[in-house]
Input
Amino acid sequence: MFNLVIFGAPGSGKGTQSEFIIKEYGLFHISTGEVLRDHIARGTELGKIADSFISKGQLIPDELMIDILCDVLDSNPAAADGVIFDGFPRTIHQAKALKEVLEKRGTQLNAVIGLEVEDEELIDRLIKRGKESGRSDDNLETIQQRLKVYHSQTSPLRDYYIEEGKYLSIKGSGSVTEIFETIKAAIAHSQR
Ligand code: AMP
Output
């Protein structure tokens, strides 16, 4: 069994690369952002709470987010065969919770794929995406807030996973297929 985290700033290509990774390794995809957007679209209570954070570019509180993740794992038997976590963890607290949750299930994280992209390029990409995605958080003001949150709360995870010996640093600019080839090579190397 194989569990991966795909990690990086908003706009670093986590969703795009996840699609390639799912096909290559047959993993179950959990994008916490997508789970939340689905709740918003269905107008659930959770969706209302999530929207109040997402539209401001803020993170959903840790305990709520961890409960949501556990629900997704519990309600999808396919997740037991290996998962790619996309957009989770986003704080050190979430990373520690993920470790515990996986340990309880008799498994662990194999590697963290860290997509590294300069802020300027991230902003360009997210503004472009906003024109097509219709996402409430892909506008300049919210993008800047999301990057701020990323640098203060999420990027410390890079050092956390380097310490754990799980971090695979990947240059996240260039063509999507080139980036995927780099990811595959890094995963193969890490499993030796
Ligand atoms: P994403 O689609 O991963 O860019 O996530 C969109 C938004 O959903 C984020 O800006 C957060 O507001 C929220 N979100 C997604 N995943 C998490 C998480 N692991 N912890 C807290 N908030 C999250």
Q: What stands out?
A: Residues 10, 32-33, 36, 53-54, 58-60, 65, 87-88, 90, 94, 137, 146 surround adenosine monophosphate (CB under 6 Å). The beta strands are 4-8, 28-31, 83-86, 111-116, 167-171. The chain has one domain: 4-186.
